[in-house]
């Protein structure tokens, strides 16, 4: 089976699947399969947050939603988040901060595939993970009007990818268009109802609002947030808006049958059905990608699953023993067969280090650069 190696985001392959890169050369790649092709594709059937939103009937409708519980206050659900890989999710910085300093990761538990707010309610597909680390980007809380209100949260162990737990897409390559005023995005959360907190996960489609339009309509108490470069304005529709408990939850927009995370709920009104402000995820993508690359590539660390052996030992490498190994072949035009020319090392989903460039091979390759 041949798969075309795509530029930009890259296509990843199951063990021993060849990837066609041109009509005359191909690479034999052994690399863990990425979640890029399945992110943001819920298997449920959403028909309908929070305040006034409709109830979610299955966690498979929004499998990227994360419920964050505070273990110091009887496992109360305090915030939301959005899973972006098997070991990382994005939330709001203020969920893990007391206005003076960051709070310890051990204070929180992340839950997945939950449609019920109360942790004591059993749900068969739920997963729970402790939090290993919470990454901030120059966040100082109210002192700086909640600028940089975004947190990248690293789990202690990867989640199992199922129909009920699946990442939302992130625009890593910057291919998604700018949002137009009025474009509807999906928001998910356990937002409070008028008289009491909601026991059920809810969702609604809310509109992105251009800054100039927002400036004329937003209440004075929220106007300062409209001028912050890292936030965008979101409106309310038919009484549906965000509310307490929704903080950190994501706003995703559909693109080519996938949902892309574009915003993280930062600030809004606790009393009124009005405008709210989301941290613009696109602004922070280089920072997010840099942290994830340090410890994970598509849900997995680099250089793992390798037996400690030396090439000079002459031992036969087992299947998947060296997942970064690349074999480069050249096609002989006369007989249409491929000949292995040299090897390389995969260092990135789209980058290989080798001793020659295979983008402009001469018509006749006389000698490979290595054995």
UniProtKB/TrEMBL annotation:
Q: Name the Gene Ontology molecular function terms of this record.
A: serine-type endopeptidase activity
What's in the GO CC field?
Answer: extracellular region
Which superkingdom does the taxonomy of this entry point to?
A: Eukaryota
Residues covered by the Peptidase S1 domain:
50-293
Name one process (GO BP) from the record: proteolysis
Q: Where are the transmembrane segments?
A: none
**Compartments reported by the entry:** Secreted
Alphabetically sorted, this entry's keywords are:
Disulfide bond, Glycoprotein, Secreted, Signal
Q: What Pfam families does this protein map onto?
A: Trypsin (PF00089)
Instruction: Kindly give the SMART domains that the UniProt entry links to this protein.
Output: Tryp_SPc
Please report the name of this protein according to its UniProt entry.
Answer: Peptidase S1 domain-containing protein
Biological source species: Megalurothrips usitatus
Q: What is the lineage of its organism?
A: Eukaryota, Metazoa, Ecdysozoa, Arthropoda, Hexapoda
